[in-house]
């Protein structure tokens, strides 16, 4: 039985589909929505913004706020509750490192822009290959 599910989100439509899937397939599970900030991007904008912030944790929470707001709406539409967490680092590494605390990871097949995928790499593929627990990739 799956009782703890990790759903990484990046604000993309695909990650929202992953959250919807997790809520539908695992209605009795504790669902944690994870947003990772500070990883590489084409212009290093987010990482640079964090580096220049006086309070890195506060800035990370600020960057994650709109993503979490949308996730909360999706959960409410499904009459369910979620927990949210934000972490700093490279998305694939953070997700794989957090995975061992859960029964499964539900992740969107891809997210972000084409430029993000080319430079950062395919996060879903890396998580799928390296995760210590089962991974469901949602398209």
From TrEMBL:
Endpoints of the signal sequence: none
Domain UspA stretches: 1-139
Entries under InterPro entries matching the protein: Rossmann-like_a/b/a_fold, Universal_stress_UspA, UspA
Recorded superkingdom: Archaea
SUPFAM superfamilies the UniProt entry points to: Adenine nucleotide alpha hydrolases-like
UniProt similarity note: Belongs to the universal stress protein A family.
Name of the molecule in the record: Universal stress protein
């Amino acid at each position: 039985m799956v009782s703890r599910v990790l759903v990484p989100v990046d604000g993309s439509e695909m990650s929202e589909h992953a959250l919807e899937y997790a809520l539908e397939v695992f209605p009795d599970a504790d669902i944690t929505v994870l947003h990772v900030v500070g990883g590489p991007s084409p212009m290093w904008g987010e990482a640079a913004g964090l580096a220049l912030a006086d309070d890195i944790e506060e800035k990370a929470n600020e960057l994650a706020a709109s993503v979490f707001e949308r996730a909360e709406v999706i959960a409410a539409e499904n009459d369910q509750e979620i927990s949210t967490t934000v972490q700093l680092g490279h998305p694939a590494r953070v997700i794989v490192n957090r995975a061992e605390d859960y029964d499964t990871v539900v992740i969107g097949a891809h997210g972000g822009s084409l430029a993000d995928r080319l430079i950062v790499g395919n996060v879903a593929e890396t998580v799928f290959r390296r995760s210590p627990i089962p991974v469901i990739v949602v398209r």
